[in-house]
Amino acid sequence: MRSSASNLLGPLTAAAFALVTSCAPSPSSPLPEGISVVPRGHREVEIQPDGSLLPIFFRGASSIGFCLETPPSLDSSQWEGQILLDDRPITETFAAPRVVMRSTLCFFEPLPGDLEGATLRQLGGNVRDTFDGSMFRVPPRPVRIPESSAAFQSLEKELESVVGTLDLPTELIAALDGLTTRAEEEGFPGMAVRANLIAFHHLLQIGTPQAWAEGQRRLDRMPDWLTQHEASFWGSQVALERASFEMNYRRNLDAAWGFLRQAERAQQRIAHRNHFFTVKQQAGLLAQVGAVKEGRERLRSALEDCERWTCNPRLLPDAKITLSWLTLLDPQASDRDFSHAEGLLESAIDETSAAAAAPHERSNSLVNLALLQIRQGKDPAATLDRARELLGSPEETGRARELSGWLQLAEATDALQHRRLDEASRICSRLASDGNFPELAAWAHGCTARTRRLQGNLLGAEESFAGALLLHAYSSPEELGQNIAVGPSRRGEDYYEAARVEVELQRPADAWALLAALDNLASVEADREGCTPPFDSPQSIDGDSPVDHQTREGLLLELSSLETPTSASFREQRGPTARFVRERLQELWRRQSECGPPQEEAALVEPRFRAFSLVDEVILLERLQGGAVRLARRTPLAREELRQRLAQIEASLGSVESSDEDWRALLQPISKALLPVDLDTLGATTSYALYGLLQGVPLTALPLLPGSDQKEEWFSEMTLPVVGPSTAESLAPRDPAQSAPVFVVDPRGDLAIGDQAEFYQDLFPEGVVLRGENATHVALEEALANSHWLHVDAHGLFDAAFPELSSLSLADRPMTFIEIAELPLPYWFANLSGCDTGTWPTTADRGRYGIGGLLTRRGVPWVIASRSVLDDHLAGEFNRSLYRQIHAGDAFTKAFSRALETLRGKFPAAAWGALVLLGTESIPIEGGKRATSGTPRIVEEEVEASWKAERFAATEKRGRS
């Protein structure tokens, strides 16, 4: 925090100070280290002999100024600026920045029209911090202000005329190419890039492979100077077009993401008001690979930022349309979500109508609105009629044909919902045969499959679902180059529905294989030794940023500095900056996940039960000791009821004030769906894989059904339920030369655990006890080098928006998920006795389960974690009992069961139900190798081969590489 002494500056003194500085610049200090300065408002650049760029400002048509990109940790929230030309101010007073975006401040004013003399000028400025009156000088740099802008304005008007009057793409492109050549010859390289980008856009509209190939050549010939700071505007536009081309035509999602990052960095430098269009594209990519909720949250945050920053109002309707579409993609969205999305979409439709937007795009919005209405049980007929009227007769352009297809799909979806099965089947089968639009075709295959199932054609449904899953594979997380869990999405729903069809065909083993394939979708299996994948594409322009975006250490340092106490104005400014740094840290983890020294040979293990929910029921599959799979239960349970019950469970979990009677009533329908019929056949432990919403079920505190002959009340009294996260491995048993338990106890000194540290030390004198201020990062890493087990009594911090940044609070600072991944592994178990150490957002696969799940995936045989808040007194009781049993020589699972017994009767089930046991105890797969990701064979080879040939033909037709 700053001292408030400078606030003693009196009003008269301050006024005198302002008067002096307005007349001529006063001596001032250099800008603080780490600030980049970029000129703003220039309409052109002049390429110098050494390749550098000289900004050109035109009289009467330009503003002039500069942007300061400050380090996120620097408080610039109360800065004002003054612009200097040839060391003279162009305004009498200092002014607040015209635009602020994250930590970038832009100061600019209209270019004076009465300038005389030389065209080469020096652009600089002064900056004053109104908090304490300190002054900084912005170093001057040369700029050109020509005496006349007639030549530039003439070309610009001609460009606008060409775009507005020529309709035939070939004529338009030829005219734009002529303008590009003239602009380059007359010394206007920025306009040449602009004309070339417009030509590129219309080449893509032609839609032939030859046109796309020509578009690719144009992108490859874009000039190198676009990466310079003075070219940030043009560079961001080219990066966006590159991203669009990679995403929509070459289907290279990783490259598209890298180009979007480039555009984001270039826009950040000049606080460009189109910045959230880039975020919209990122959100769409995340949704495309299954991270629908994450994409929706990223776009929602960007729209909120538009309330504090300047955004291009013409782009806002498109962002609202995309946000409503992302809501449609979430199968677990609530009625409230749909209602909100419907309101956004109706607002966007009104705005685009008023702005005379292209009829096709308005038709697209209406189709989305119709799909939202169908999801809410409303009649979409009137909305679809409006969409059809705007679309007219489908033209021979790709966009028109695609929109026509989505309109027909909406009609089929409504028909399917009202059981007009012949109509739905006819429409969806026709759409599924068109391989030009993979996402539409995938939806159509799924629609066909659902229709065929309701018609009783299970083999046809199986075939159609296989087609849908193959098309979904067009966009997988690994194609984005990041290890991202597939969230609730259309893709996950098609896996569940396909598995149900296999059950109904009496092929439970094939249903099991489908779920196993779903588990592996997000797995990025790279060579772990020396694994250093690039953080951005090779064309990255990140390296000159005040934040070192290439290193985790630089990002963690910045994030730490952004979390220190500060003034209200700086807190408001740095909030979006902190979110940006978190995004980069998260991406770094996802790109380098699992890198590091290779571990021992691992065997993939299978759970005893897999359970998944559909719209109307829950299915429980069981794998027997011999390897056979059977249907264990099939229970009607509407997903909306399940969602509501799980929301109540989440609200109660961890509470020591809840009622066991209410808890049983809340969970009994779920018990009926998840408990096997033959409870007596269960062993001491029973492993589960829970998919989607079911990950929120607290198996430990699942009540037994009433009327049972069993005297026990809870499932965990019959057997110890174990949850296995996705991609968990079972490492071979290890026998370390030295093995001691490691205890981390109350690093911040604020837990109500009494003499727990002395208890651990007395019971295990050979153990390493890190208590209070001694529990630091370095001390923990050293202690774990040969640890038998790890115990942590510390606060767990769960970050719902960026779960990879969840952490454990140590004495010096929080240890993040990313850092925990690199700790040496405890050889036997880990007991993470802190809040939310097993919490993670819902995924379509069998789940991640937070820090606890991370250790399990890396091979720790047993991990105890918490799915909610954890009461200190409950944790103390549990831990004392657990370690007494272990000291007495009990097996870990037996010690865990007895520790649970000590809690029953003392605490309500909702409180101890927050504890989850993660592990890999189950039936090993023959051969011990991981199943490859993808779709298991559920159709004949020749059928799959024909699909692949069709996909290849469509790819060639679209000009993808």
What does this protein look like?
It is built from 32 helices and 28 strands. With 961 residues, the protein is an alpha/beta fold. Helix 4 packs antiparallel against helix 5, helix 8 (275-288) runs antiparallel to helix 9 and helix 18 packs antiparallel against helix 19.
How much helix, percentage-wise, in residues? 40-55%
Runs in which pLDDT lies below 50 for 5 or more consecutive residues are 1-25, 524-549, 594-602, 923-961
Distance between the termini: 55 Å
Strand order of the largest sheet: 20-19-21-25-26-27
Provide a count of the helices: 32
Task: Sum up the overall morphology in one term.
Answer: globular
Q: What percent of residues are in strands?
A: 5-15%
User: What is the β-strand count?
Assistant: 28
Q: What structural category do the secondary elements indicate? A: alpha/beta
Mean of the pLDDT scores? 83
Radius of gyration: 31 Å
Biggest β-sheet description: 6 strands, mixed
Structure, briefly:
The chain is an alpha/beta fold.
Key attributes of the depicted protein:
961 residues; globular; disordered C terminus; alpha/beta; 28 strands; 46% helix; 5-stranded mixed beta sheet; 6-stranded mixed beta sheet
